[in-house]
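Sequence in, structure out.
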Amino acid sequence: MNTAEKLQQLRDLMRQHHIDAYIIMSADPHMSEYLPEYWKSRQWLSGFDGSVGTLVVCQDFAGLWVDGRYWLQAEKQLQGSGFQLQKLSHDAKTTHTAWLAQHLESGARIAVDGQSISIQHYQALEQVAQEKSAEICHELDLIAEIWEDRPALPVKPVRLTAPGLDACSRSEKIAQIRAALVEHKVEAHFISAVDDIAWILNCRGQDVEYNPIFLAHLLITTSIVVLFIDRAKLSDAVESALSLDHIEIVDYQHSAAYLATLEHSTILLDPAKVSLLHYRALANRCQIKFDLNPSTLLKAQKAATEIAHIRHAMLKDGIALCQFFSWLDQVLAQQQALTELDIDREITAYRAKQDGFIGLSFATIAGFNANGALPHYRATQQHHAHIQGNGLLLIDSGAQYLDGTTDITRVVPVGIPTSEQCRDYTLVLKAHIALARAVFPEALAAPLLDAICRQALWQHGLDYRHGTGHGVGYALNVHEGPQVLSYSAPITAYSGLRPGMIVSNEPGLYHSGQYGIRIENLVVNQIKAFAEQQYGTFLCFETLTLCPIHQAPIVVELLSQDDIQWLNDYHRKVRQQLAPHLDGAALAWLIQQTQDIAMI
């Protein structure tokens, strides 16, 4: 079926069930960002394959809500689909719930699959329903009725993390969660966030592309631990290791039914990470307390040993990147035929040679000129550009190693960039350096740092429509919370930056139809030592990523002395750490790219 036929079949089913508006979230029962194929309902129906987005389907309207990162991509992919792009912004009036409140008639019937909507999102939908005297049906998965060749749920094997990589044992982490239950004055905690579960259990999987996780739910009470998982994923060795910590195994599909049997418990749920299905299974018999998963904050603050392993992963990544960029420079200098697809293939091949490489941490973004203006662009066989002539090539890539997760963006000048491109590149570099040099009080709300980074761009009337930084997991998801550097993010009790948190530093600038620029490193919060401590503890960022920042497009006159000093210091560090592991053309490229810029 094409998109129009799928949409028509859905509307036919909606009429049969007397549904006025059907909502399709980009989520699974774990509220994950990256989904197994089974749960990619939004992509299957609309054709839009960005990582986030919400669909609303009525008889006379179908819309896709996405934020500014995806506007250009959605405009292209929705052409002829029957879906209209709805531009989601910081304004609450641009949400899909605001649209429903404005357009639904009183007494309307709304439907959403309770397995793929969080408690938090359902509560927002309930407010609309109350205002419109509407009914919400949450037990219908209409997509399942028309998606005839829907993929099965994955059953890839779970593995134990390698000895020595985890700072705490499984039993110690469970004890930490139980201590948090005492603090919250609850008897139990139900967890659906798959990266939290992988972290707690010191296990990894391969159920979802790019993220080394496995589909499971976890119940931890003061007396028992229950893992809801497809047993086919567990080898004898893994199951034996879990049993040593008294973890009971229950079938994944029976999680809601099991929860429905719990009585008289006070249970902790993260409303952003637990589905409506599981909430309703608990709500009739248990008292619910909402708060962030304790494990989310615990895993965000990396231990010193974990940071040491991540530094080793960054070293390996830096070696591979120098080899790749050396190859790329040679190809460009010889004016050989080159496409964006070649970039993806080659950068992956160089990383794959490194010890402990598992795979990519996200789909490589290699965008030349206009394609670089799409923050989440991905070249395909059908749509990709040849890299020739003059301009800028944006490469955003990352890897999963056994001992760490990487994420880096560099911009490569091709031919002779324009003076405007060089100016913009330098302004983005200044923004990057401003954040890298920041010193701030411990527990400062992360969104407040965003303005420091954007100032270099704001002074020229420029900006970008994505956050400046996201948390990064330890050999886990490339996106993790609660830390986020974005002035549009809400400030909560858990927004404070703490030692050991890893975030990305990735300001950018995008001119639609022309070019895009983004410079990204990963940084870790460290305590800044001061002789005088009367004003409390201060933090600073240690840059973990090891790879030269291309100097050719820099307009030196736009940099301050402090900017130049930071860049020279960074490049000396990169050269010192990588040079002993390189030779030949890659070593020559590293040395040439890390030469000091003369002070003005």
